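Batch 3, record 17
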Amino acid sequence: MYTLYDYLPSGNGYKVRLVLKNLMLPYVLHELDITEGASRTLEFLAKNPNGRIPLLEVPGHGFLAESHAIISFLASGSALVPDAPFERARMWQWMCFEQYNLEPNIGTARFWLHSLHRTPEALGTALTEKHAKGHDALKVLEQGLAGRRFLVGERYSLADIALYAYTHVAPQAAMPLDAYPAIRAWIGRIEAEPRWEPITAR
Amino acid sequence: MYTLYDYLPSGNGYKVRLVLKNLMLPYVLHELDITEGASRTLEFLAKNPNGRIPLLEVPGHGFLAESHAIISFLASGSALVPDAPFERARMWQWMCFEQYNLEPNIGTARFWLHSLHRTPEALGTALTEKHAKGHDALKVLEQGLAGRRFLVGERYSLADIALYAYTHVAPQAAMPLDAYPAIRAWIGRIEAEPRWEPITAR
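Prediction for the assembled complex:
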């Protein structure tokens, strides 16, 4: 059985948990409090030298890091990954965009405010910059969703799960989604999917 | 035939050019000077709303962005992508690591110094932070290469191409590689691969 090392408020971890749940794959959850340095202990660094969760232990193979590597491994051959090569590439395009443009801004701002309980006043321009770049990413996402039900091939895929994870909690990063009607409608569709569960559900 | 929109000094673009060359795929190169805003014109934003190169035009399908989405599309089914599911996931783990931990630090520091010709004095702590995080990434890469010829399955794969692109030009970001013997040996092996070419080769 898989073992998942995770921190429940993590959007990156949530992607993995949503995929495991969607595919009804049983797993053992090993919770780590990353705000207390639990992913930087010598014991954990021996499992993942990059010191980050989520981390999946795959029996017979070892440890796999990076949320998108994990979910593509778990969902390979399932309905969550398009069969057509160009659609699969488009799925990866959105997932790469998420890790480069969306997560480092919205995810980091949310981590500062929501997990570490820092104040906007203390964060100052560091937060302002994350908000500006985060809204740039949301504008690209809004445009990508215009006239579509889901990001790729009109079907729920890993791309939706990967971009939903931090987008739906953007308000916890003090980034309201009022200006993004296509994003809000898409969030509603994802939350109506079978086997969806909230971010910190066990 | 493919059309590649690219800026020759770009490490992200270089990944795509190395894969096209390795697989002997013919393409038209459309060069853009991103230091002059050529990827942020209305004409280019209509092709890629995220305003970035490399961008691949795929006849019959449209435009594909994000270097790793592009190279995995081009190399699908080739010897550059491992057949075994866990090895393929490990390849993606390294590629995701590159986009999150390596490229935003080494690539950005190099862009400031080498493409925009800014000085370390003018950049100040912004550069110091990029250097610190960049060296953290290089340490993880050095450890990952210990006792290995290539990153995954002892064979040259997309993971090697993706991580080599910015690592081999780290000295242009004022980050010498002297402290990383495994990385330097691996760079030598990659540059001995058939159909390797230098970053700004046409």
